[in-house]
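[Discussion] Sanity-checking designs against the backbone

I'm trying to build intuition for which residues belong where. Below is a structure token string of 111 positions. I'd appreciate it if someone posts a full sequence so I can compare it with mine line by line.
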């Protein structure tokens, strides 16, 4: 999962709880490229999708930076460098105005 990860107390907790509601107890790492470059406004989504596509292509997930501990109100597992990016990702984004979007991208393997 590539979460929006805006570093907003209420927004991050809401996003994390939504993920937990959707995924249950599945052990799915959550990455957030914003930890590398901050919020880029309207450009964030496209840059984050590119980052996740590169993770799939290079078979290397990017860990979340600058996190010492996860708030107990955010029941997710943050991605670590040792995690596999798998073969697909879901990218999530939302705005403070209530807009939200998501996309699922799957790696294609040629024969």
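Best answer:
Here's mine. Compare freely.
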């Amino acid at each position: 999962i590539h979460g929006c990860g805006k570093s907003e107390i209420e927004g991050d907790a809401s996003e994390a709880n939504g993920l937990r509601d959707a995924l249950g107890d599945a052990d799915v790492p959550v990455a957030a490229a914003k930890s590398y470059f901050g919020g880029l406004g309207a450009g964030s989504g496209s840059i984050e999708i590119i980052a996740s596509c590169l993770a799939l292509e290079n078979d290397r997930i990017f860990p979340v930076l600058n996190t010492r501990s996860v708030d107990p109100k955010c029941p997710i597992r943050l991605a670590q460098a040792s995690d596999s990016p798998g073969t697909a990702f879901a990218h999530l984004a939302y705005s403070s105005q209530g807009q939200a979007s998501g996309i699922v991208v799957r790696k294609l393997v040629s024969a």
